[in-house]
């Protein structure tokens, strides 16, 4: 009986040791498996980062380069292609010389076809807004009435031509008379008034449909209205309904 009890205790000890070994092996196995997962979690943010794209440096071309000829005479360059030292103490209307310099990326030559950067230009001493109308262009308004008394004016923005040199701002405001056309011809209106004026064709042509209907249903005012319209159109008193001028 004593030997049997000793054998039972020995079996229980062996069983306990085997269970302890299994549990310790699983723990190490789970620890070994958990370590790569932790490493993956740590490495994922690094691998998920997208490397910044390399930006290619592109040299920007200035806007004025579209107006500047290559290897042309420096004295013939447009005003936007050079910078000059202003001499505002000159006498108005008198010739004056200015020391100028070609802008960056602008290449020009002298009379001997030698590369040049600094040069002298001659011009008349006057501000840009004092130039004659032939040396600048202005915006035109199509909303003001050209036929009115007194004549109406509108505010326009004027820009000096490229080859013209002057003092001050090259873009300036100016009050101009309303002077625009909608495509109506004076000769066509007069012919319609003489031939078909009794049916209001002249008024319909000029866009005055109310007066045209009045002439149509009154047979030209029994001829009186027709004669009056012929006179008014011939002297230019009656014009297009949109307020524009005849061609």
TrEMBL record:
<keyword id="KW-0812">Transmembrane</keyword>
<keyword id="KW-0325">Glycoprotein</keyword>
<dbReference type="GO" id="GO:0016020">
    <property type="term" value="C:membrane"/>
</dbReference>
<protein>
    <recommendedName>
        <fullName>TM2 domain-containing protein 3</fullName>
    </recommendedName>
</protein>
<keyword id="KW-0472">Membrane</keyword>
<dbReference type="Pfam" id="PF05154">
    <property type="entry name" value="TM2"/>
</dbReference>
<feature type="transmembrane region" description="Helical">
    <location>
        <begin position="184"/>
        <end position="204"/>
    </location>
</feature>
<dbReference type="InterPro" id="IPR007829">
    <property type="entry name" value="TM2"/>
</dbReference>
<keyword id="KW-1133">Transmembrane helix</keyword>
<keyword id="KW-0732">Signal</keyword>
<feature type="signal peptide">
    <location>
        <begin position="1"/>
        <end position="19"/>
    </location>
</feature>
<comment type="similarity">
    <text>Belongs to the TM2 family.</text>
</comment>
<feature type="transmembrane region" description="Helical">
    <location>
        <begin position="216"/>
        <end position="238"/>
    </location>
</feature>
<feature type="domain" description="TM2">
    <location>
        <begin position="183"/>
        <end position="231"/>
    </location>
</feature>
<dbReference type="InterPro" id="IPR050932">
    <property type="entry name" value="TM2D1-3-like"/>
</dbReference>
């Amino acid at each position: 009986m004593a030997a049997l009890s000793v054998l039972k205790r020995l079996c229980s000890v062996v069983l306990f040791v085997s269970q302890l070994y299994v549990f310790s092996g699983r723990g190490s196995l789970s620890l070994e498996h958990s370590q790569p997962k932790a490493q993956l979690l740590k490495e994922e943010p690094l691998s998920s980062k997208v490397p910044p794209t390399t930006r290619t440096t592109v040299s920007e071309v200035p806007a004025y380069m579209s107006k500047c000829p290559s290897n042309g005479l420096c004295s013939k360059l447009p005003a936007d292609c050079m910078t000059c030292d202003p001499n505002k103490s000159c006498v108005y209307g008198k010739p004056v010389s200015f020391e100028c310099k070609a802008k960056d990326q602008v290449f020009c030559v002298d009379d001997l076809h030698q590369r040049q950067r600094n040069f002298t230009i001659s011009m008349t001493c006057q501000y840009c807004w004092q130039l004659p109308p032939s040396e600048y262009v202005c915006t035109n308004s199509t909303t003001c009435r050209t036929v009115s008394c007194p004549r109406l004016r509108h505010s326009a923005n004027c820009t000096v031509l490229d080859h013209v040199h002057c003092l001050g701002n090259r873009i300036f405001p100016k009050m101009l008379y309303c002077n625009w056309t909608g495509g109506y011809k004076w000769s066509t209106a007069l012919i319609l008034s003489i031939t078909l004026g009794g049916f209001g064709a002249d008024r319909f042509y000029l866009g005055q449909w109310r007066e045209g209907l009045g002439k149509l249903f009154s047979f030209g005012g029994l001829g009186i209205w027709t004669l009056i319209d012929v006179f008014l159109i011939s002297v230019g008193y009656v014009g297009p309904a949109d307020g524009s001028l005849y061609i």
